[in-house]
Write a structure and sequence with these properties.
By secondary structure, the chain is mainly α. 75% of the residues lie in helices and 0% in strands. Helix 3 packs across helix 12.
Length: 319
């Protein structure tokens, strides 16, 4: 009996010892099978970045008569980066981009949060209103830009509504005034991307444990106290993700703005994306453009890392 038991134990131990080996073999096999795809993804990600870095330290452009592989002969000792630091137009474009971000992102967040709170409860016609609310997000940005271009014309619907409200003719040249043109662009951005913020925040709001809210209600907490002490802390990660997405996307605002104003009047609405586009297509200073794009990439990467660290601190993702 003891011999059989000992044999069985040894066989079991052998099986246990064999499992890690089989696991290791499976891991190695999986690595070998996915290696071509990993190399391809690495190439797709790394090659453009290395190419951009390479071009950014040269004076190469399509008009130089050289292939990009010979751009090294136009090495400029990082002059593009020193020019970038002294480029007043670049810093003005960056400032306008920051203004759009500072106004639009909080407005979209607050409107999205209010709508998400409203849609968390059932009410008649909820599905219909839900579909209508998501429509702006589905409009092509260029089409949205043309829509708002027409809305903000001197004889457009916006001035007609203001004329009806004031009782006197209103002919504001929205897109010809430097300040008003930027406001019109921000209105268009808020209209189109508040639904995205609403959708993300609604997903987080629905995931808040109902039992905790009921317990707080039984303990006498009013709706505002429940929202501040339970709902917002539970949605911290979702809020950070939503804000990070919109901050990054606001840096890339182009289609709507370019259709509405083309960066004008003058350069009054020229954001960093519009500035890069103009330098690329009009001035053809591709080495300088590469330096600008690399600087923006670094800034956006810092924003993304900051957002990830905040989420890690909240204990939602591994640090």
């Amino acid at each position: 009996m003891s011999v059989v038991t000992a044999t069985t134990s040894e066989e079991a131990m052998g099986t246990v010892r064999a499992r890690p080996a089989s696991r290791d073999e499976g891991a190695r096999l999986g690595f070998r099978l996915t290696l071509p795809a990993q190399v391809l993804v690495l190439f797709i990600s790394a090659f453009p970045l290395l190419m951009q870095l390479y071009i950014s330290v040269t004076d190469w452009s399509p008009l130089s008569g050289l292939g990009w592989w010979n751009a090294w002969s136009l090495w400029n000792s990082f002059a593009n980066y020193t020019d970038l630091a002294a480029d007043a137009r670049f810093w003005s474009a960056l400032k306008r981009t920051a203004i759009v971000m500072i106004v639009c992102v909080p407005a979209e967040f607050l409107l999205g949060l209010a709508l998400a709170t409203l849609f968390a409860d059932d009410f008649p016609g909820k599905r219909i209103f839900y579909s209508i609310l998501l429509m702006p997000m589905m409009v092509v940005p260029a089409v949205a830009g043309y829509m708002f271009f027409m809305l903000f014309q001197s004889g457009g619907p916006v001035n007609d509504i203001l004329s009806s409200l004031t009782g006197s003719p209103v002919t504001i040249a929205w897109l010809s005034d430097p300040t008003l043109a930027l406001i019109a662009v921000m209105v268009a951005d808020i209209w189109q991307w508040t639904p995205l913020m609403f959708l993300i925040l609604l997903a987080g709001l629905v995931g808040v444990p109902e039992d905790q809210i009921k317990a707080a209600t039984l303990l006498g907490a009013n709706p505002w106290q429940r929202f501040v002490t339970i709902v917002l802390p539970k949605m911290k990660t979702i809020i950070i993700i939503a804000l990070a997405i919109r901050v990054i996307e606001n840096f890339k605002i182009f289609d709507t703005l370019y259709i509405m104003t083309g960066g004008g009047p003058g350069v009054a609405t020229e954001t960093i994306s519009v500035y890069i586009y103009k330098v690329t297509t009009q001035d053809l200073i591709w080495g300088y453009v590469a330096a600008i794009a690399l600087a923006i990439l670094i800034v956006l990467s810092i924003v993304a890392v900051f957002a990830m660290k905040r989420m890690a601190r909240a204990g939602q993702v591994p640090a």
